[in-house]
Every structure is written in structure tokens, then in C-alpha cells.
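Re: the 225-residue chain
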Amino acid sequence: MAKLTLEKVTYRYRNSVTPAVNQISCSFETGKLYTIIGPSGSGKSTLLSMLAGLDHPSEGDVFISEANLKEVNLKAINLDRYRRQTVSMIFQSFQLLPLFTVIENVCYPMELNGIHPKSAKQRAEQLLLSVGITQEKFKRFPSNLSGGEQQRVAIARSLASGATILIADEPTGNLDVANTENIMALLSKLAHEDAYCVIVVTHDLDVAKSADVRYKMKDGTISIE
């Protein structure tokens, strides 16, 4: 069953005649790894923003299962919950909190969701170990980790929210080849073994080839490669 579905979605920025996204229809299901490629200005970032509920279509609809995000948006608390508990973002620049330790970074979204600090800490430890961060690094600050390690912590933090849809915006853009392969193997495992829906925007054609479904964007439109 599709987790995210777009039906004839168009997005226009204010005072712009040409739509950034133009009549896109596509879907993203659990248990699969998707990649989206395309040149700068093709509409990838705008599409991600709508999938994450940060922007809303000028025309068309975005559905999460059978719920229209337009309806969710009418109740701000529900949209906020959607962004905290249903969809989670992974960024190229990691966006870890620099004054929080590794384990505090992973605990943070759980505590926002009302989970008791003791339970959050136990869950955070499990998640960090599952992505290959060993216990001796739990109390380090992000600046004391390698780029690959920071990205693993960022993935653990995304999983901590309970979201089953992971949207990764150039997650390997700051990593070397070995770490890129490790991160993509981890994202693939999350999709195939743990039934996440993983959507990766990338410029790296080798990364794109690792997907179950490859979408290509050009001039605001989307197609399957």
C-alpha cells in the first residue's frame, strides 16, 4: 500500500509564472528505497518540501495513506505531529545540535513526543548501536565524530521520531566513497528489512543506481528511469 501519493501536484512560487513543480503524479511505498535525481532547479527541493508537509501544492493533492495533507493542514497540531512522527528528514549537513552529545541528539525528538527521558535514553542507545555507533561515542559531541559517523547519528535521530517515511536530501553529499556506500547500505536495509519508505534526493548516479525505483526530475516534471 502506498504511503505517500501525489496526484497532479503543481507548485508555483509567488510572482513566478513558471511552476517549480508541474502536474506531478507518483507514489512512494513502504519497503522500498527510492532515489530522485535531476539538475539544480528541476524541482527536487520543492517536491521534498511538499512531501514533508513544509509547503503545500498550489494545485493537486498529497496523500499520506488515505489522508489528504490539505485536511491535515487545517489542524495545525496534526500537521506538526505529521512532521514529527510520520515523516523525518535526513540532511546533507547532518544538522545535529552541536552542544548536545550524540545520545542527547537522538533522545531529543523522543522527548519532544513526550517519551520519558529514561525510556528515550534506552531507545536511543539501541538505535545508535543499530546504525553502527558504538557505546564509547555516545557522550561525544558531533564535532568529535567523522562525517560518516555524524550521518549515522542523524539517521538514528530520524528513526527515534517513530517516523516510517525517511526523506534524505543529499545524505551522502559530504561523504567519501566508502562512507557513501555504508550509508546507502544502511538506508537500503531500513527499507527492505524494517519496512521503511526511504526517499533519497541525490546528484550521485552511483547512489541512484542502488534504488528499487529511480525517479528523474526535469523542468518540474517527474518520470521513472
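The mean pLDDT is 89.
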